Amino acid sequence: AALESPRMGVELDQSKVEAALEGGRIDVVAVQVHTPASKLSFSGTIGDVFSKPLLDLTSDIAISLPELRKSLHVAPILTGQVVAHVAAQGPVDNPEVSLHLDYGGGVVGRQKIDRVGLDCDIKNRLLTVNNLQADVASGQCTLQGEADLRNAFVNGFLAPQRDLESISYQFFLKEKNIK
After folding, report:
1. Residue whose C-alpha is closest to residue 175's, from 141, 125, 139
2. Rounded to whole angstroms, how far apart are CA atoms 94 and 53?
3. Quick one: average pLDDT of 130-154?
4. Exposure pattern of 128-155 as b/e (b: 16+ CB <10 Å)?
5. Which is it for strands 39-47 and 25-34: parallel, antiparallel or unpaired?
6. Where do runs of H (alpha helix) occur along the chain?
7. Among 9-18, 35-44, 76-85, 164-173, which is the least confidently predicted range?
8. How far apart (Å, rounded) are the C-alpha atoms in residues 134 and 173?
9. Beta strands 25-34 and 106-108: pairing type?
């Protein structure tokens, strides 16, 4: 099977959805989507679906960058694979989210990357980058810090009013042996 649109095309190997709706709660036993080289799965619950949805979901993702490049019809060279684990809990308009991401290396654009790792979370619209580390052929870059999104999304991420100009941030970048 395939999903096609003018901006995207994805070939699916298999997909599976196993969920139950009972009393305003969705129990997601398993959602799995597989393409020839990528996988997406998530499970958990969504409570109070019809009034104020509450998330308790986890997702595991493995994305082939060459497949993503082909699917999105983009020109830059992308090689390698990104693997991620995401967890989201709380109200859908202001959840607590944690992300762990690993890129095992490859080429992005024309730049060879040996490895990228990211650990970050969002709590009460405050994004904390605990560690973003990129290993490139000549050295290493590390980034840590915070981005305060509270004034940009005063009433939550889904509210129509937002002020992206009011995002404040403080990040610290360290480099070692970058040439």
Report:
1. 141
2. 11
3. 93
4. ebeebebbbeeeeeeebeebebeebbee
5. antiparallel
6. 65-72
7. 9-18
8. 11
9. unpaired
- Residue 102 burial by Cβ neighbours in a 10 Å radius (0-12, 13-18, 19+): middle
Rounded to whole angstroms, the Cα distance separating 144 from 160 reads 30
Residue given tokens 């995207």 in the structure block: 8
pLDDT digits (tens, 9 = 90+) for 30-75: 888 888 889 999 999 999 988 889 999 999 999 999 998 888 888 8
CA distance 166 to 126: 13
Q: 78: exposed, middle or buried (C-beta count within 10 Å: 0-12, 13-18, 19+)?
A: buried
Residue-level pLDDT at 177? 85
pLDDT of residue 92: 92
Other C-beta atoms lying within 10 Å of the C-beta of residue 22: 7
**The pLDDT of residue 172:** 97
Say what the pTM is. 0.87
